[in-house]
Amino acid sequence: MAKRIEAVNVSAYYGAFRAIDNISMTIEPKSVTALIGPSGCGKSTFLRSINRMHEVLPGAKVEGQLLIDGQNIYDRDIDVTAVRRTIGMVFQRPNPFPTMSIYDNVVAGLRLNGVRKKSLLDAACEKALRGANLWNEVKDRLNRPGAGLSGGQQQRLCIARAIAVEPQVVLMDEPCSALDPISTLAIEDLIAELKNEYTIVIVTHNMQQAARVSDRTGFFSIDKTGEPGRLIEYDDTAKIFTNPSVKRTEDYITGRFG
Ligand SMILES: Nc1ncnc2c1ncn2[C@@H]1O[C@H](COP(=O)(O)OP(=O)(O)OP(=O)(O)O)[C@@H](O)[C@H]1O
C-alpha cells in the first residue's frame, strides 16, 4: 500500500523564479521523512510538487521526475486527479469544510469518488476516525459541524479526511504549527502509527519534532534571497541531529543559522 517516492532533479518555478533547484531524494515506503530548513528554502514547494499541487498556481511549473513506485507522476498521460487521490495532504491550519458535519467531512473524498452506499461510508468514516485517534471523542456527535471541534481535533479530522480515501502517501505541511503542545503530541503519536501503513513526508520548523517523529531528515537551504532552495543533506534523522556531514546542517540544527 505505502509507496516509494523518488525525486530526480526536481526544480520548481513560480513564473520565472526558480524556488527549488535539482532536488533528488528517495523516500522509502512506510517511513516518516522530515523536511527542515530556514524559511523560504522551498520545503513547501517541494512537498506540493509531490502530489502535483504546485502547478495549480498560475505560472507555476515543475521540471524533473517524480516517481511513485517507479511511475513518473509528471508523465503526460497521467491522471492528475488519481495522483492527488493517491497522495493525500494535510495543511498547516486545520481546514475542515466549515459547513459540513464531522461525518460529511470525513467521507467527502469518498463521495467525490462516487461512493454512495451508506454502510460503506459509515464503515469508512469509523475506520478513518479511529485511524486518526479521534473516534472516541466524536462518535456521539458525528452530525455536528466539524468546525465546532478544538484546533487539535480539527487537525485530526483533517487527517481522518485525508486517510479515508486510503491514499498511499500522506504529505503534511507543518501540521502542528497551529496547535498547542498536547494536541501536537497527539498528532506526533498518530504519525508514528500512520507510518505502519503510509509513506509520510512532513515539513516542520520544529526540530525536536523532526527528531522525534522522523526516520530520515532532509535539510534544505538557500544561499541568499532570490536564490533557489537546495537539498543540502539528507540522511538518517539520528545522524542529521547528532553527527551531520555538512557544516551548514550542523550550523542550522545547533541554531547558529536560520
Ligand atoms: N505563490 C507563490 N508565488 C510566488 N513565489 C512563491 C509562492 N509561494 C512561495 N513562493 C516563493 O518560493 C520560495 C519557497 O517558498 P516555500 O513556501 O516553498 O518555502 P518554505 O521553505 O516552505 O518556507 P516556510 O518555512 O516559510 O513555509 C520562497 O522564496 C517564496 O517566497
UniProtKB/TrEMBL annotation:
Keyword Membrane attached: no
An example Gene Ontology biological process: phosphate ion transmembrane transport
An example molecular function term from Gene Ontology annotations: phosphate transmembrane transporter activity
Tell me which SMART domains the record gives: AAA
Q: Name one GO cellular component term.
A: membrane
Q: Where is the ABC transporter domain?
A: 5-247
The record's keywords, sorted A to Z, are: ATP-binding, Nucleotide-binding, Translocase, Transport
- PANTHER family named in the record: ABC TRANSPORTER I FAMILY MEMBER 17
Name of protein: Phosphate import ATP-binding protein PstB
